[in-house]
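Appendix C reproduces, verbatim, an entry submitted by the partner laboratory led by Prof. M.T., so that reviewers can inspect both the input and the predicted structure.
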Amino acid sequence: MEVIRETRAVCPVCLRNLPARLVRQADGRIELDRTCPAHGRFRAVVWRGKLDFAQWSAGSAPLAPDAGLRCPERCGLCAEHETESCCVLLEVTRRCDLHCRFCFASGGEAGADEPPKEKLLAEIRDIAARCGGVLLQLSGGEPTLRDDLPELVRAAKEAGCGYVQLNTNGLRLAREPAYAQRLAAAGLDIVFLQFDGTRNAIYEQLRGAPLLREKLEAVRVCAENRIGVTLVPTVVRGVNDGDLGALVALAASLAPGVRGVHFQPVSYFGRCPGPATEKARYTLDELLFDLHTQAGLPLEAFLPSRCDHPLCGFHAAFLIGAHGALQPLTTAVPPTGRSSARENRAYVARRWMRAAPEEKPATGGEDFDSFLYRVRHESLTLSAMAFQDAGNLNVERLHRCSLHVYDGGVIKPFCAKYLTPMP
C-alpha cells in the first residue's frame, strides 16, 4: 500500500471530520482511507486503475495541512473555498411524480413541501445579486409540477441570471407541449433531462416505470421549441453501465435537439437502496474506460475538469459525422492552470444551449464557415459529474466545487448540502 495524498474526509456514520489519505493498493486501486474513533476504519475506492491517476489529476494542489478542519459542518462558501459559483441550484419543490430508487433530494416523500412563489422570487433575486450572470438550475423534486415555473424562469432572466436550466424527468414536457412552449417563451435555455438509457428495463429498475417513449417525446418537444437538451443518466453498475455506447449513439442521432450527455456515476446520498459496497462503486475512470470501449471514443478526447477538481468530472466535444460517427474536437494536453467559474459557465452555455437558427453554408465542404456551422449545430458534448457521498467525500475536492446550492440564504457546495450518513 502506497500513500499518495493526505487529505480530510468524514465518517460515513456520524459525518465527523477526519484526517484521511489516498492510498494506492497493489492492484492499482486508489482508496480513500480514514479512521473514526467512534466507528472504526473506512475505505472507499475512488479510482480503479483504468487510467493513470497521476496524469489525470496533474496540476491539482493537495489540501494544505491546516485546511478543511471543519468541512463540511455548517458549510457555506467561506474563505477556504477556492471556486466561485458557476452554477447555483435552487429547489423549487420537494414534490415529485416519481419515487426513484436513487434521489439526492429525496423527492416525492410524504409531506413534501411547495415553497410559495414570493419566497422563491426573493431567493432568485438574491442569487442574481450575489452571483452575477450565474447559471441558475431550477430543481426539485420535480420542478414541472409547479404551474408557475415559467414565471420563475422569466424572473430569473429579468434579475440578471445569465442562463436558466431546468432539471427534470421530462414527463410533463412530453405530456403537455403547451407547458414547454411557455417555458421557452419565458427564456428557458437548457433542459437537463433525466435519461438513464436506451431500454425500458433500465427505467423500470431505476425509476419504477417504462418511460423511454415519454423521454423521447420530451426531447422532441424541447427541440421543437429550440430548448437545448442534455441527457443525464445516473449510471449504476449492473443496470445501465453496459448501455453507455448505445446511449451516446442515440444522443448523436437526436442532435441538434440533444446537445450532450452528462453522466453521473451513482452516489449514495439522499434516498438510496442501501450503503455502497466496493463492488457497487462506479468510479470516474471506469466510466471513461467504458465510454472508450463501448462507443469507440479515444481516451485522449476526454479532459479533466479545470474549474472543479479533476476527480469531479470530465468533458469532451465531438463533431457528428456520417452514420453518427464522432470526430473529437478536444485533445488531452498538459494542464495549463485552472479555468474560472465564469469561463466554465460560458463553455457550458455554448455547448448545452441551442444555437440561433442560421442557414448552412452553401459550400457544405471543409472551409472554416462550414466547420463553425457544424460546431454550432452538428456536435455533441460528453461530460460527467462524480458527486461525493459520506463514503468517499474528499475535502480537497469539496474546496474546488463550483456547483452550489442556495439553502435558506446560504450558498453551499452541492456535495455538502446533500451529504447524508450512510444507511
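The CA atoms of residues 178 and 306 lie 39 Å apart. Additional entries are available on request from the coordinating office.
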